[in-house]
Amino acid sequence: MREITLSKAVNEAIAEEMRRDETIFLLGEDVAEAGTPFKVLSGLVEEFGTERVIDTPISEPGFTGIAVGAALTGSRPIVDLMFGDFLFLIMDQLCNQAAKAYYMSGGKLNVPMVLRTNLGATRRSAAQHSQSLHALVAHIPGLKVALPSSAYEAKGLMKTAIRDNNPVVIFEDKLMYQDKAPVPEEEYLIPFGEANVKRQGKDITLIGTSSMVQVAEAAAEALAKEGIEAEVIDPRTIVPLDEETLLRSVKKTSRAIVIDEGHQSYGITGEIASRLNEKAFYHLDAPVVRMGAMDVPVPFSPALEDLTVPTVEKVTAMARRLVAGEMIHAA
Amino acid sequence: MSAARKKKTNAEDYLRMYRQMVRIRAFEDRANQLYLSAKMPGLTHMYSGQEAVAVGICEALTATDRITSTHRGHGHCVAKGANFKEMFCELLGKEEGYCRGKGGSMHIADQSNGNLGANAIVGGSMGIATGAALSAKRLGTDDVAVCFFGDGATAQGLWYEVMNMAALWGLPVIYACENNGYSEYTKTDEIAAGSLTARAEAFGIEAHVVDGQDVLAVNDLTQKLVARARKGEGPFFIQLDTYRYHGHHVGDINREYYRSKDEEALWKSERDPIVNFGKWLVDQGISSSDDLDKVKSEVETDADAAVAYAEAAPYPDTREVDMHVYAPSAA
Ligand SMILES: Cc1ncc(C[n+]2csc(CCOP(=O)(O)OP(=O)(O)O)c2C)c(N)n1
Ligand SMILES: [Mg+2]
Fold first, then answer.
1. Please, where are the H alpha helices in chain A?
2. How many CB atoms lie within 10 A of CB B64?
3. What percentage of chain B reaches a pLDDT higher than 70?
4. Do A167 and A212 share a domain, yes or no?
5. Where are the alpha helices (DSSP H) in chain B?
6. What CATH number does the domain containing A156 carry?
7. ipTM for this model
8. Residue A214 located in a structural domain
């Protein structure tokens, strides 16, 4: 199968959907000629013109609000938010307006809109350009949240997001844009709420999101050399969450670590761990462990930044301890 | 004050302005080199070309007057009184940096000289500068606050909210818009409707346009507005027309698709703020070209020493990673 970059996969998904459906348009900062700073959207304006690939001023709440209005009235906008950190600017439009319109109207109005943005630290971009804020939007009922872990997922999830009749937020890892993965030429979609079991194992379950799937896979590889068989699962969407697949795995392995790049406190790792504790308690041999980013603003200095994220070494060490039974009596 | 004495004072002021502009250029040339030689983590936005704006304005301020800076903030930082050593240390993520390596290029600031921070959120400091002005008024200091931002930042709704309040409450704040013609990879003409001065005037705020390549024009105007702001006649708005010599950031090399080489050459060859001011100083008999060359070589020696110092300086101790998340408070 051919291999393409995550960037190209996103580009293809959007182009294919725009060819299929005239009501789709794109808007955001420097999306047209520049094709975004990460060059993900290059070529789209040439094919679809500036009526459908629209450069906006640096007015995030404004253009998000415009997208909500357009989505309520027959369009299917894709909003490009250059950095996930700018979510804080658009929270009202996304969370008070887009997320609630369907419910508040008793099902009479809906917002078929995609917000594509990014997450991920270790790019030396400091505290306002390195955050992983997906837990914030996952907290708000009415929003769906997808976290592609490779080019394959990026394409299939984007196409599903565009066809969804709800506001969907997709977070791409900004360090993965040039990573290649096999992506079929033929059309495919990845349904929301279907986790992907990346590797089978019987001793421990490693649940990773976004780029943390790679970390989990590398940890599983290292553990295999020591005779520990780790199962690796990528939930792919955190809203909706495929609890069934996660529970099935944990009931088999009796141990789990949840790895995610958002801050550890009040985050995705805690949510997933808590669901496993609630629903698989009697099957567990150890507490489900959360491994998120440190609860600090992301520091600029490489000497500090690298300490803040989960790594293969940290995950491997934690898995080893869990399997050895060390965490059972943890406070 | 006698006429002779006034001339002498002015001459000192002029030479200091010249030196400060040269210092900014020297700093940026080295920052760019550090990036190109892969010694600097991350990206940075060069201030070269805009020196007369930062220097003309900051030379009209006292050390306790506040400024807020932007992602393109090295120039403001130097102009408000910072040292090279701590600046280069910050750029390289070293412990002795102004922010102990936690901020990096986009958050660099010498806080002890009234710089409230560079900001990686476009328009993110507009409220902060206005709040500093409110604080000055409430506390009865006669400090003013200058809010630096780019032409692209005028698209942020926050600006209109805070201008309204600043005008209602007569705050000593000066909104200084550095109009370099571009927001990232887009001509600002294409994403800004109407006139910027008219936007300020709509709130009853006195607005000025000044040649941002002419340090004396900038300084004269700012001195007058600062004096009036101290007397309670603020707020004010200044549009400073200028140009950035480099790409949007150091990695933006192939940029002819949005900005022509001819245009860049024209600004550099005919409107350079340092060259033109140097010529004027010589023409007026205030300095000789030898003396100006001497200033340059002194500054460059200084800058090289600071770079060498920063390269050898230690990174912060890893224990610093979770320091400074919360300020200590009395119980
Ligand atoms: C809220 C926000 N939106 C977008 C960006 C990305 N961005 C960084 S600089 C920039 C352009 C800013 O243009 P301008 O204000 O004119 O400043 P200049 O870069 O020209 O100095 C953009 C869009 C950002 N940092 N913050
Ligand atoms: Mg600009």
1. 6-20, 44-48, 60-72, 87-91, 101-104, 134-138, 151-163, 212-225, 243-253, 268-280, 302-305, 312-323
2. 12
3. 97
4. no
5. 3-36, 51-58, 74-79, 84-91, 126-139, 157-169, 196-201, 215-230, 261-270, 273-283, 289-312
6. 3.40.50.970
7. 0.94
8. yes
Cβ count near B155 (within 10 Å): 23
Give pTM, 2 decimals: 0.96
Residue A30 touches chain B, beta carbons under 8 Å: yes
Q: Do B107 and A127 touch (CB under 8 A)?
A: yes
- List, for residues B164-217, the tens digit of each pLDDT value: 999 999 999 999 999 999 999 999 999 999 999 999 999 999 999 999 999 999
The pLDDT assigned to B1 comes to 40
Q: Does A34 touch chain B (CB under 8 A)?
A: yes
CB A255 within 8 A of CB A285: yes
B155 touches chain A (CB under 8 A): yes
Domains of chain B: 8-322 (3.40.50.970)
**Which CATH number does the domain housing residue A237 bear?**
3.40.50.920
Domain carrying residue A11: 3-182
Read out DSSP for B147-160? EEEESGGGG-HHHH
**Ligand 1 pocket by C-beta < 6 Å: which residues?**
A 29, 58, 60, 82, 86, 89; B 71-72, 120-122, 149-153, 180, 182-184, 248
Q: Which of residues 186-205 of A touch B (CB under 8 A)?
A: none
Q: A191 lies in a domain?
A: no
User: A329 pLDDT exceeds 60?
Assistant: no
Q: Which atom of ligand 1 is nearest to the CA of B121?
A: 26
Asked which of A160, A182, A204 is the last residue of a domain, the reply is A182
Whether residues B94 and A61 touch (CB distance < 8 A) is answered with no
